[in-house]
Amino acid sequence: MSSLPMILVAAPFVLFLILLLWKRTPLIWVSLITLILVAALAIFYWQVYPTYILNSLVKGSLVAFDILIIIFGAVFFLEIIRETKILENIGYHLESISKDLRVQVIFLAWFFENFLEGTAGFGTPAAVVAPLLVSLGITPLNSVIIALLGNSASGVFGAAGTPIKVGFGALAGPSVPIMAATINLIGILVPVFMLWFLTKDRENHKKEFLEALPFAIWAGVAFAVPSIFVVYIGQEFPSILGSAIGLFLVLITTKLGIFVPKMEKDLVDTPHPAKLPLIKVIFPYLFLIAILIVGKFTLGSSGVRIPLPVAHTFTYFNPGFAFIIAGVITLLVYKRNINLFANSAKVAFKKSLSPFLVIVFMSSMAQIMVNSVHNATGLPSMVGMLAVYVKNNFLPLLAPFVGAFGSFLTGSVTISNLMFGNFLAVAAGDLGFSVDRILALAVVGAAAGNMIALADILAAETVVGLKHKEREILKGVIVPCLIYVGLVGLVGMLFFSQH
């Protein structure tokens, strides 16, 4: 086969990175230009049948609409929380656990995010936690970066085991969840990444980092190790029970003064006066979590199939609906003016529109790449062409990077697995590698890639009021992401490379 198709399929991604990182072009234009290039290649070089191009655009728009509901709901909920003065009080009540901001950040961005990933997933954790970090006095940009770092390790099992159950489906054998949980011990490093980022610009950054390093490592261990044992109960539970068990263990050691920094530091010197009692502060979040859990385990993946040529189901359970319901109930319980509902909805719609268009363009591009198999030239699909780059003896090293790339592109570990799982399984079989091992490496890589997922970046960026900061955010998360994925690949080469 000529090398030209391989060059052409890589060209859109090279252009994407040049425009976004070097030329600093706004993401909405970068994504549109990349979509146009992919569509042009599909039409004129692959000669994809026009029906499949149209279907890809429709499917991409429907997928984006699902995410729009989440972003709209998260912003709507946040606006109501902000207007009811709840955000202002969170810092004060966190101080009852520890007055040290480093400890507070890890509780929120590690344990709380992991729990949210297990109950809702799909971009919800970072969108909820980033505003909470802002309320502690951390800048919006740094809050988004820290929240995205936390939106990683628990993605292996995601919302009730969806990434492996749905993403890989019949491809995954029973050992995949167990191997994935074991490999994911590398996730112990995530709280360390958070701590490093939180302290790196401080005058005494080395001292402040080292003081809290034992706590960060302990927090990582307290989640990752129980998750391995919980996976034997079922892959639906590691993110939920792992975070709950870890939180319980770390709360005990924190109260006993074990592993916590001896010198407590409020690194941003922000006072947190109390205006509301604890129950009023946590009620909206408890109610939100309750809706997420009940909705996920009662409605699951059931939904309404759209009567169109493309296969798409609008699920009854969408985390965005939980945000909206929790916001409305908070509005009623706190007896606020009904005008707040309309104002919050207006702000949410305005802030959600640009991210929605970006996700339409990116999702449509991914769909065209998958559907490019339906062509008049006999060429493999664009996704299949990408497989040529990884179908070699370094597959255990490269599989996590494929997973991370899928999450970056689609914003979902599950969709990354759906997109690349089949060709990874085929490549593993052809090369004599264990299919289960390669898939386990890929799903852990995809979870790490959630740090750089464009859809998640847009959601978190939107709720804290940032615009066009994707380049700065990616600069903050790319190194931890590459370390995480690289270590997963190294584990693959050292322990899983036997044919």
Which features characterize this protein?
2 strands; single chain; 499 residues; mainly alpha
Short description:
By secondary structure, the protein is mostly helical. It has one domain. It has helices spanning 4-22, 27-44, 50-83, 87-94, 101-119, 124-135, 140-150, 162-165, 175-183, 190-199, 205-230, 238-255, 278-299, 319-333, 339-371, 382-390, 395-410, 413-431, 435-449, 454-463, 470-495, and strands at 303-305, 313-315.
Structural write-up:
With 499 residues, the protein is mostly helical. The chain has one domain. The protein is 71% helix and 1% strand. It contains 21 helices and 2 strands. The chain has helices at 4-22, 27-44, 50-83, 87-94, 101-119, 124-135, 140-150, 162-165, 175-183, 190-199, 205-230, 238-255, 278-299, 319-333, 339-371, 382-390, 395-410, 413-431, 435-449, 454-463, 470-495, and strands spanning 303-305, 313-315. It has a two-stranded antiparallel ribbon. Helix 1 runs antiparallel to helix 2, helix 5 runs antiparallel to helix 6 and helix 18 (413-431) runs antiparallel to helix 19 (435-449). The longest helix has 34 residues, at 50-83. The radius of gyration is 22 Å and the shape is globular.
